[in-house]
Amino acid sequence: ATLEGLLSQVPGSLGKTIRQRLCVAGSGLSQSISATGAVWTLAKQFALANAANETEGASGGLIAVMHPEQVSDLRDSVYAASAYRFPTQDQPISDTAGEIGLHRIQREAGFVNNFLGISTYQSVDVQTSGGDHVGFAFQPGKFVFAVASTASIPDGSEIVASLPEFGVVIVKSHAPPVLRFDASAHFGIAAVSDTVRAGWKLLSVND
Q1: Over the stretch 40-73, which tens digit does the pLDDT of each residue have?
Q2: Is the peptide bond before 177 cis (omega within 30 degrees of 0)?
Q3: DSSP of 16-59, one letter per residue?
Q4: Among 12, 18, 84, 123, which lies 20 to 30 A Cα-Cα from 186?
Q5: What is the pLDDT of the chain when averaged over all its residues?
Q6: What are the helix and strand counts (H, E) for the chain?
Q7: Which residues of 114-151 are buried (b: 16+ CB within 10 A; e: fewer)?
Q8: What number of other Cβ atoms are within 10 A of residue 49's Cβ?
Q9: DSSP 79-97
């Protein structure tokens, strides 16, 4: 590949790698909201919101990363909850539903954005374990990004481009007659203690 071609692929490849590493780190969180062996439901989404509400400093502003099947299961669960489907001005929201507008629940679940105060994203990079998807939810700042030293790059290697803030280097090969460029990223992602920032695994069946 030409150097220009390789450079054009770096942003997309780096973004995908970071997302994959984040999903791996998220699957290792110690706390969980579990629907293991069953689909993810509206009740479990409320359980997650309640867990955040009852954790000091964690209520509001959560971010969730879920598998597309978990998002679809949640959407189906919202649709199946008849109390939420046909609101009228004379039909107040029940105590168990809280103050969430009925149309808002459906709209936000369908668009996978902010639902019950949880900014929800979906990714096929969410891990699986024992037949379950392992999504995750966390407070901003739960995961830290660390750039590693590039000192291990062999002496004499010609670094032709770098993104030091991401630990990315592109090295030119010295193996004539083949002209070769190798890109590598030297970084890691880890979760901080739950006493610093809260996080939960979101377990539900891989259906």
Answers
A1: 999 999 999 999 888 877 766 789 999 999 999 9
A2: yes
A3: HHHHHHHHHHHTT-S-EEEETTS---HHHHHHHHHHHHTSTTTS
A4: 123
A5: 78
A6: 5, 12
A7: ebbebebebbebbbeeeebbbbbbbbeebbeeeeeebe
A8: 21
A9: HH-HHHHS--TTSPPPGGG
